[in-house]
What does this fold into?
Amino acid sequence: MIVARPSKKSKAGSHSEARSRSKSPGAARKKPSRKKKPASEGVEEFVRGLAETERIALIVRDELFGGSWENMRKDLEAHAAGRPYVFRLASRIDEDLKAVAKLSAFERRRKVNLSEYLGEGQ
It folds into this structure.
């Protein structure tokens, strides 16, 4: 389950604000950007043609498995074998594994991260 963290609002002059001002610029961790790189031919078209479950697979790969198709594939295989698992995408594990294979193969061939091509809010 993906849980959003509530934002922390600091009061003017608070200890946390003073601490954040003392840090050097760029010292704070930033979430990886989902801004897309210049379009590779055919990538945007491929992404537009993805099924909803394939789009979800991309998001889940990034959010739950640190961007690793291998870790996601292992998790699905663990689920299929009756071992503990993290996430189940669709009603059939076979379909999920096929989606992982399809998407990871496309990314390897084109040397792209398809998540960068998903629209905002996807």
